[in-house]
Amino acid sequence: MIRLSFFIILLFVWISPISSVSYRWFKQVAERTNTSLVVDAYYAKCLVDAPDYLNSCGTVTYGVGLTPRSAKDFARFYAVATGEPHCNGYIGQCLIRQYCSK
Asked: pLDDT, tens digit, for every residue of 27-60?
C-alpha cells in the first residue's frame, strides 16, 4: 500500500504542469526583466494580490536571481519599479524555477 501511494505521488509530480516549465516561460521572464537567460539562475513569476483600488500595481511581477530568495526579492523590486512604492507588499504566490540548459 505504501509503495502504491508513493508511486501515485511520484507520478503526479512527474506529470504536473507546475513542476516543469517550458523554455518559452524562461524567455518571457527574461524579456520582462530585460535580462538574458543564464544557466543555473532562478527565474520567478509572482502574482500581485493588491486591493482593487490600487490600479497602478500590476497583476504579475517577474524576478531573476542566483538563489530563489533573490529572485523573489527582484520580483518585489520589479513591482515597485513598474507600480508604486507600496506594491511590493502585495506579492503573493510565486513560481520560481531554475534554468538549466539541455
From this structure: 999 999 999 999 999 999 999 998 888 788 889 9
Nearest CA-CA partner of 67 in 46, 44, 45, 48? 44
Are the C-beta atoms of residues 84 and 61 closer than 8 Å to each other? no
> CA-CA-CA-CA torsion for 77, 81, 85, 86, nearest 10 degrees?
-60
Domain ranges of the chain: 37-102
Q: What HEC string does 47-90 produce?
A: EECCCCCCCCCCCEEEEEECCHHHHHHHHHHHHHHHCCHHHHHH
pTM higher than 0.85: no
Count Cβ atoms below 10 Å from residue 74 Cβ, excluding itself: 22
CA nearest to 32, candidates 50, 47, 45: 45
The length of the chain is 102
**pLDDT band at residue 3 using 50, 70 and 90 as cut-offs:** low
